[in-house]
Write a structure and sequence with these properties.
By secondary structure, the chain is an alpha+beta fold. It contains five helices and four strands; from the N terminus they run αβαβαββαα. It has a single domain, classed as Glutaredoxin, CATH 3.40.30. It has a four-stranded mixed sheet. The chain starts with a helix and ends with a helix. InterPro entries: Glutaredoxin (IPR002109), GRX_PICOT-like (IPR033658), Monothiol_GRX (IPR014434), Monothiol_GRX-rel (IPR004480), Thioredoxin-like_sf (IPR036249).
Length: about 110
C-alpha cells in the first residue's frame, strides 16, 4: 500500500485525526503541540500519526490535501487545517462542536 493510500485509509477510518511531528504526549514541534492540546481540550479521543516515524507519509502528506505544513487536522475526512486554524476554531468553540459531532457519528455507527 502506498503512503497516499495509507494516509487516505487513516483519514477515512478515524473521525478525528492529526498528522503531527511527535505524539500528543511527546510533541516534537511547537505547532504540533498546540494543535494537539486544542484537540485534547475538546475532551474526546482522537487518532494521531507521528509523521517523523514514517518518511513516506512525511514526504507525501503535503500532496494528499495540498497543504504544505504540519500538523494537519482532519475531521470526518475533511482537512480542517494546521495549527493556527485549529487554535482559532478552538477559541471560537467551533472545534469542540465539530469533534463532538464527529465522535457521536462514530458512536452511532457502532451502535
Amino acid at each position: 500500500m502506498s503512503a497516499l493510500q495509507r494516509i487516505d485509509q487513516a483519514v477515512k477510518d478515524n473521525p478525528v485525526i492529526i498528522f503531527m511531528k511527535g505524539t500528543p504526549q511527546m510533541p516534537q514541534c511547537g505547532f504540533s503541540s498546540r494543535a494537539a492540546q486544542a484537540l485534547m481540550a475538546c475532551g474526546e479521543q482522537f487518532a494521531y500519526v507521528n509523521v517523523l516515524q514514517d518518511a513516506e507519509i512525511f514526504q507525501d502528506l503535503p500532496q494528499y490535501a495540498n497543504w504544505p505544513t504540519f500538523p494537519q487536522v482532519y475531521i470526518n475526512g475533511e482537512l480542517i487545517g494546521g495549527c493556527d486554524i485549529t487554535l482559532e476554531m478552538y477559541q471560537n468553540g467551533e472545534l469542540q462542536q465539530m469533534v463532538k459531532a464527529a465522535m457521536q457519528g462514530k458512536a452511532s455507527e457502532n451502535a
